[in-house]
Amino acid sequence: MKNRFVVTITDINGSKQYNVHQYMKQIVLYVILLMVVIFFFSFISIQLLLKEVEQIEVKRDLMQQEYLKINKKNEKLQALINEKTEELVKVSDRIEDLEGIVGLSDRVVESQDLSLMERVDLASITGAQKALVMQLIPNGAPLRGNYRVTSEWGTRVNPVLLRTQSHTGIDFGVPSGTPIYAPADGVAYFTNSGYNGGYGIMVKLEHSFGFATFYAHLSRIVVQKGEFVRRGQLIAYSGNSGRSTGPHLHYEVRHLSQDLNPRAFVEWTMRDYTKIFEKEKNIRWQSLLTMINQLMEIRETPALSHKARE
């Protein structure tokens, strides 16, 4: 009985006794201890897993927030890309307009592989050459805003003398005091406030390559004799001086002292660049343009040399 112990179980039916060996007692204790250890480690593991899950949820929330930020940035970038794309389309359209103005549309159609920058460079070179021509030779009206031509160039009945004679310019019906601007670079070689043979107060500008422009029946002169003027510079104000039946501007365009029809020069613009060569046959345009192109090459050569040195 030394290595045994007795277990007595009593209930309503009576008492029962069980003899348990001492080793069984130890086994039971070990099992109970093992269950406690397993429970303890299970509890610890569950707590660690819960903490890991919490960390994963925190990371997930952070990643979700980062995703939302990146998504917003992507939306902004996409909007910026769309905006730049629209601007690029507008630039391309403007380049096409510029190409049309400087007469490059046909050449670009033939060379579809040109990049946008190449098209800009080509248009700017050709545009610069044409701009120089438009800067030096009279073009456009010497007035701004609305105006009407009351008398054309050519033979007409003089409204004062009432006889047929040649009208060497065109008349713009404008009120006295209307500003008058130079249609090209030049120099004021005649500024006189006398009668001037019926022209009244008058200004004459000399331009490059033998061109000259006359402005008659003025009310006031702004420039002085010998003064250099730029295209678009204010030179005088219209009036009713001299032999005149009403306020107007008499405007003449001359080349080598020969009067030309100013209408073609008034309607001459960069967009209609070549029309003047068809309308005005009294000028040797080919040799004149060749000289201007040579001037352009001379002007561009120092710049190219400077770039080469760089």
Descriptive overview:
The protein is rod-shaped. The longest helix has 81 residues, at 22-102. With 310 residues, the chain is α+β, with helices and mostly antiparallel strands. It has helices spanning 22-102, 105-110, 116-136, 262-266, 275-279, 285-309, and strands at residues 4-11, 14-21, 149-151, 154-157, 164-167, 170-172, 179-181, 186-192, 201-206, 211-221, 228-229, 234-238, 249-255, 258-260. The chain is built from six helices and 14 strands. Helix 1 (22-102) packs parallel to helix 3. 46% of the residues lie in helices and 24% in strands. A hairpin with an 8-residue loop joins strand 8 (186-192) and strand 9.
Outline:
With 310 residues, the protein is of the alpha+beta class.
Question: Layout of helices and strands, plus pairs?
Answer:
Layout: E1 4-11, E2 14-21, H1 22-102, H2 105-110, H3 116-136, E3 149-151, E4 154-157, E5 164-167, E6 170-172, E7 179-181, E8 186-192, E9 201-206, E10 211-221, E11 228-229, E12 234-238, E13 249-255, E14 258-260, H4 262-266, H5 275-279, H6 285-309
Antiparallel strand pairs: 1-2, 3-6, 4-5, 6-13, 7-12, 8-9, 8-11, 9-10, 10-12, 10-13, 13-14
The value of Rg in angstroms is: 49 Å
Content of β-strand: 15-25%
Q: Count all strands and give the number.
A: 14
Distance between the termini: 115 Å
Question: In terms of structural class, how would the helical and strand content be classed?
Answer: alpha+beta
Give average pLDDT, whole number.
Answer: 81
Largest sheet, in brief, is: 10 strands, antiparallel
Task: Provide the low-confidence segments as ranges.
Answer: 106-113, 303-308
Number of helices: 6
Helicity level, as a percent range?
40-55%
Inertia-based shape: rod-shaped
Order of helices and strands: EEHHHEEEEEEEEEEEEHHH
